[in-house]
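To the wet lab folks,

You asked to see what we're planning to order before we commit. Fair enough. Below is the target structure as tokens, and below that is the sequence we designed to fit it. If anything looks off to you, flag it before the synthesis order goes out.
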């Protein structure tokens, strides 16, 4: 089997003395459709709190669709629907009376390409999520503190602290992606979803985002879709392998890459298809 980059020691190892893993996300018989076509098929999985879970698989296998089901973004696509159950911290996000906007405040998402709001300043981009709900509007001082905190957590403060009122499109692509992460962090979500967040970035920017992802597990649950198996090995505690919309295998990352239990997983990670 070809060598896969060795994962960093999982943080969960260091936390074993603190007790068993706590659950953050549960899906039960989750299926997602575009019209009559199922892109995700009957996925049941449990994702732990304060850990990074990677989702890997070939193009078109349903990785991004599964991710978008976890914050009710899938339903924004015309003729798309979801069957099954998704629970986050014990609450069914598709339950009757559950507000999709409220779900997305607690479950942030960052997309493949940086998506800063081009007409807004760096500061306004980070604060944008705070202004969605009028009940959450706050004094300028409090907003400034939250913006600074989010930029610090995204590892971007020192690079942009003197440029907060400049347009967000004036910084590099890698900085723009970390700005989008800061924007997601500003609402203090419990979960952060990352859909191939480094696919369009250069190696140095990719490294910075990976280091950030690795650090964020200390305070939140992160789920990352990646086409890069080395990246999954570097940043995640657990990895799920999807194929044609089905969950084939879900194991601790080191185990999945070194001793997969399903022949299809082994074939994929050794490069025989995908």
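Sequence we intend to order:
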């Amino acid at each position: 089997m070809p060598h896969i980059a060795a994962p960093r020691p999982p943080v969960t190892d260091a936390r074993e003395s603190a007790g068993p893993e706590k659950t953050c996300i549960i899906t039960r018989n989750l299926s997602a459709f575009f019209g009559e076509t199922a892109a995700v098929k009957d996925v049941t999985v449990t994702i732990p709190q304060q850990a990074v879970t990677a989702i890997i698989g070939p193009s078109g296998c349903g990785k991004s669709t599964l991710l978008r089901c976890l914050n009710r973004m899938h339903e924004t696509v015309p003729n798309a629907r979801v069957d099954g159950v998704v629970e986050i911290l014990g609450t069914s996000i598709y339950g009757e009376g559950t507000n999709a906007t409220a779900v997305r405040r607690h479950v942030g998402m960052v997309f493949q390409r940086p998506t800063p709001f081009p007409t807004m300043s760096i500061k306004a981009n980070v604060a944008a999520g705070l202004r969605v709900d009028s009940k959450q509007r706050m004094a300028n001082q409090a907003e400034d503190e939250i913006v600074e905190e989010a930029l610090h957590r995204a590892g971007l403060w020192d690079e942009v602290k003197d440029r907060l009122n400049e347009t967000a499109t004036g910084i590099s692509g890698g900085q723009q992606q970390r700005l989008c992460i800061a924007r997601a962090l500003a609402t203090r979500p419990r979960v952060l979803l990352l859909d191939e967040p480094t696919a369009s970035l250069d190696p140095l920017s990719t490294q910075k985002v990976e280091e950030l992802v690795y650090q964020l597990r200390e305070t939140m649950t992160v789920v990352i879709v990646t086409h890069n198996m080395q990246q999954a090995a570097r940043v995640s505690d657990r990895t799920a392998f999807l194929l044609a919309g089905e969950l084939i295998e879900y194991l601790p990352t080191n185990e999945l890459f070194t001793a997969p239990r399903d022949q299809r997983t082994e074939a994929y990670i050794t490069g025989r298809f995908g």
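Structural context that might help your review: Confidence is low (pLDDT under 50) at residues 9-18. The CA atoms of residues 16 and 202 lie 36 Å apart.

Thanks,
Computational group
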